[in-house]
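Write out a record, focusing on structure:
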Amino acid sequence: MTAKPSLKERLSAHFAEYGKIAIYTYLALSLLAITGFSIAIGMGFGASSTSGVLGTIGAGWLAAKATMPLRILATLGLTPLIAVLLQRRKKAAPAEAEAETE
């Protein structure tokens, strides 16, 4: 019985299999987390010691950094679904182009 691969190994294999789709999914989730935490902190939720825009964004980045394992798991789960949706969209685009030319 082999040991279960670590989260880092699974993510690396996922990036190798799905390429740009996995990277874009991870980056999109990261940006959403940083933006969401920054907005929440700016509205008064969380740390009250942040001053100015850079302090708020920095605090949002730290909070997002704490959620990295969850974002990695979300990337592992969402990437195959996004890949399927993109493949369906690519298949539908030529079919629509053929219908328009006829």
About this structure: Residues 27 and 75 are 9 Å apart (CA to CA).
